[in-house]
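Q: what does this look like with nicotinamide-adenine-dinucleotide bound?
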Amino acid sequence: MATDTMASPATVGSSPPTKVFKNFIDGEWVESSTGETFENRNPADTRDVVGIFQKSAKADVDAAVDAAKRAFAKWRLIPAPRRAELVFRAAEILIERKEDHAREMTREMGKVLAETRGDVQEAIDAAYYNAGEGRRMFGPTVPSEMPNKFAMAVRQPIGVCGMITPWNFPMAISSWKLLPAVVCGNTCVIKPAQDTPLSTFNLVRAFTDAGIPGGVVNIVTGFGPEVGTPLAEHEDVRAVSLTGSSAVGRIIGGIAAKSFKHCSLELGGKNPMIVLDDANLDLAIEGGIWGGFGTTGQRCTATSRIIVQKGVYREFIERYVARAKKLKVGNGLDETTEMGPAVNEKQLQTDLSYVAIGQDEGAKLMCGGNRLDQGNYQYGWFMEPTVFTDVDPKMRIAQEEIFGPVVSIIPCDDLEDAIAIANGIEYGLSSSLYTKDVNKAFAAIRDLDAGITYINAPTIGAEVHLPFGGTKATGNGHREGGIGAIDFYTEWKSVYVDYSDKLQRAQIDRPE
Ligand code: NAD
Ligand code: MN
């Protein structure tokens, strides 16, 4: 049944009453066709239920796509600068609500407040950037080979776009997809990750409060196979964008290929940071701690491998491990916490299973490796920051994405060796090099097989106006961020205007 509010209080189990959130379809908040719901719990304290969300199914996807299709007929005709003004207004609304949204994000997925503030800020940055695109969306105007003929290419919207997002950047990643899509004139149906639907609701509420019409952005919550798959399969969804694991990327890519719909896949990573003998070690250690344990290691760009040249290997390890041991693990709502919990029990079990795998493979466990479950930790999915050293590049802990606070340190002989190790994995998202030698830096920029390379900074820290994405199993060649997203969410139309008043045949009617 439709209501005009996003959430209604309901008493579910214990007090205080937990908010029930509905799907957002055609500008209305509606219950799912299944009548079922699921809980969104705080991974730092699972007694805290952040909200109750709709466990939707194909019928809900169909209703949302239908609404988006009807909205597209009008939205595509609104001039792009006008569409962009609404996005600009959404940015200003998000600024006012930044602190509340950051706190709710920390509650729903655990990362520390400084980082959830950064996540909301990223949506604000993306909103300003894409609002500016409303007055650009450049296309080429070129000379024709014929006299009295005009040639240009314009960007046109694609239609209904389906979006499937992960939980680790719950507002930022939703914004990377929704904002360029709507500025370009598309309409959207988004399925947020089941661990973090609230942050997508908060983003979309800024859109509706800014005046973006009903049906332009629709939310259907639920699980991958029940909502994500029918969304990708729907024949009226003309473009699908997934950020998630490479395993799910294979499923979505396969579905999209069958009907030739546009498909953007932003997938996993196993990102290397190289530290050469001449590096500023203080900087490299600080960067490696932030890159390895920020977001509890749950970033697609997390620094999960540190490749250190032999001359500084022992010193690097000693100082890095000492720093890792001192990290303060806890509830991200406490401003002094440096590392929050794993997002859920399954992710924690995966992280712990890789500790056992690393030990079996013969890597040296220098710190961490244990679950934290005493005292205040008992209600959450916490573990110690974990460092393995003397890791062989072929070990599973050096090859597979763990997505937790587990860093593998690998020795190397020189830059050439380091780059071979860095590239010797199936992924190619981010990479980094610490050196003071500009020649080595530029050689690495050329040779690291990854979508992103940082010099003297860890593998994390993307800015919204540059292309974001990776090579090999990290994706299928598209980029989010900046102009990459405008490219994905538009279709080129080449236009020829012949004002010669006669038939001019390209390639055939050539001057004598
Ligand atoms: P996931 O692949 O488990 O889930 C991602 C989304 O896909 C979720 O919304 C999920 O419900 C949905 N999904 C799952 N199974 C599906 C199916 N069969 N059909 C349709 N949809 C389905 O990933 P996650 O655990 O949410 O996120 C972590 C992963 O995301 C990591 O691999 C990480 O590297 C990756 N990631 C990549 C980027 C990037 O831009 N490259 C950014 C962030 C996260
Ligand atoms: Mn949650």
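The domain at 7-267+475-493 is CATH 3.40.605.10 (Aldehyde Dehydrogenase; Chain A, domain 1). The CA atoms of residues 79 and 134 lie 8 Å apart.
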